[in-house]
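hey so i finally got around to running the thing on that chain from the lab meeting. sorry it took forever, my laptop kept dying and i had to restart like 3 times. anyway pasting the input first so we r on the same page abt which one it is
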Amino acid sequence: MRPSYDEFELTESALRHGYDEEDFAEMLRGRHLVSRSRRGRLWGYEVLGRNLAGEYLLAAGRAVESGGTMVFRVFHLNRMTIAERRRFIRLVRP
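ok and heres what got predicted. didnt touch it at all, straight out
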């Protein structure tokens, strides 16, 4: 189930690995995988995809209400681990 949101925003912690809003937007424009987060105490989502540079990225966040609209707040954006990359390729590629 995909989160329902109108916009997205990256927190400071998401930006610390050198990726930005454009990298996340590129992930969403291409083939990507969205699943419930398997980490942490709070419910959230993991988004696995690739940016235009071809890097395999993982974003973690949750949908929150902000100013009357639903926003997907990304609090982690970094390269996938080898295991996450294998999972992405297995589930997304034909």
